[in-house]
Amino acid sequence: MRRFVLLAIVGTxxxxxxxxxxxxGIDAGDDEPTSFLAFANTFAPFRTWTSFHSDGPANDGxxxxxVLGPRTQYINKLPPAGATEFPVGTVIVEARENMGMxxxxxxxxxxxxxxxxxxxxxxFELTEDLSAATVVDIQWRGxxxxxxxxxxxxPNGTCNTCHRACAGNDYICSSKLQLATx
Length: 182
Known about the structure:
By secondary structure, the chain is of the alpha+beta class. It has three helices and six strands, in the order ααββββββα. Strands 1-2-3-4-5-6 form a six-stranded antiparallel sheet.
């Protein structure tokens, strides 16, 4: 009986991705993971990642004011050359200077997460405490902000509305993170 319980526990740990994972949460034994679940520590080193500065989208009247303005975008790893989508495990963080340093993120989660919106992407708002050796916390996560938050002018409060328009670039709207350039 003890052997059965031990085997069941080991099988559960392996099935859940325990053992063999690197610090980035991606199974070190796979070329490309099928799923990735981000935690607060996933985002902690974001300021050390490859980054791009952008002035944001043009103020042509189609975007809500909270989507406009300068930002710095960080990506944990660039996609391989010729990729048609970002690999599962891609983490993109955007720090918005015009919003009092609001920080948003997208994580390529995989396993058909968010299939009715931006397939495989999970959206986040983060906070950063620089006085505590750069502690990053998750304020919300999912398909968009909690009810009552109308980020991006979407009365339903999801991130999917705007990002769906960028389906040709795997739902990432950044002019600096276009798959065709990698």
